[in-house]
Amino acid sequence: MKKVVAIYPGSFDPLTNGHLDLIERGSKIFDELIVAILRNPEKQALFSLWERREMTEAMTKQWRNVHVDTFEGLMVDYAVSVKASAVLRGIRAISDYEYELQMALMNRKLAPNLETVFMMPAEAYSYLSSRLVREIAQLGGAIGGLVPDLVERRLREKMDPALKFYDLGKRRTGKKG
Ligand code: PNS
Questions:
Q1: What element of type H or E holds 9?
Q2: Of 61, 97, 121, 124, whose CA is between 20 and 30 Å from 165?
Q3: How far apart (Å, rounded) are the C-alpha atoms in residues 17 and 113?
Q4: Per-residue burial over 72-91, b = 16 or more CB atoms within 10 Å of its CB, e = otherwise
Q5: Is 176 a catalytic residue?
Q6: Ligand 1 binding pocket, CB closer than 6 Å
Q7: Taken in order 48, 53, 56, 58, is the CA torsion positive or negative?
Q8: Candidates 19, 38, 72, 134: which one to mutate for ligand 1, based on the most atoms within 8 Å of Cβ?
Q9: Cis upstream peptide for 148 (omega within 30°)
């Protein structure tokens, strides 16, 4: 039987627990799922493409059929290049629907054989977005439980680069706390 390859495209700036929830769900229904991180030269991201890729790889290595890649340009061109037949997108609330529908229909116009599959993350993540996580982190709010621990740590380091050197120092001297 034909192997179904799907891509899960997005900015992932940063990866949230909502994204991970969707990746886990997608890994169960597709033979291979490629998390495809967009390199968008027009948009200033908080995390570099390399940082986003590294964090996403670390957080998805538990699923053997999930891979991480980056792309630029048209998503449908990338999908064709990796022989994907489906695109996974998450819908959290009805407010997502209009934009997602427009994008799915435009992508269908560009690549009629590429199916967009919508999945819903767990209700607990229905209000979660990378944009809000960035904003809360930048304003010093608590983001525990919204993003994986690794991402939370990286966000704190972004906000206060001194922390990175403090943590590195602790690791070197073996000090706790
Ligand atoms: O995480 P996001 O920012 O909601 O993801 C949006 C994304 C990356 C899926 C969308 O912007 C995209 O596919 N961009 C690539 C360029 C493209 O194909 N544009 C035409 C969309 S119809």
A1: strand 5-10
A2: 61
A3: 30
A4: eeebbebbeeeebbbbbbbb
A5: no
A6: 9-11, 38, 74-75, 103, 106-107
A7: negative
A8: 38
A9: no
pLDDT tens digit sequence for 48-105: 999 999 999 999 999 999 999 999 999 999 999 999 999 999 999 998 999 999 999 9
pTM passes above 0.85: yes
pLDDT(161) > 90: no
d(CA 9, CA 18): 14
Query: What per-residue confidence (pLDDT) applies to 177?
Result: 43
Q: Burial of 99 by CB count in 10 Å (0-12 exposed, 13-18 middle, 19+ buried)?
A: exposed
| Known catalytic membership, residue 130 | yes
Condensed to tens digits (0 to 9), the pLDDT of residues 110-124 reads 999 999 999 999 999
Q: Which long-range contacts (CB under 8 A, 24 or more apart) does 120-124 make?
A: 120/90, 120/91, 120/92, 121/18, 121/21, 121/22, 121/25, 121/90, 121/92, 122/18, 122/21
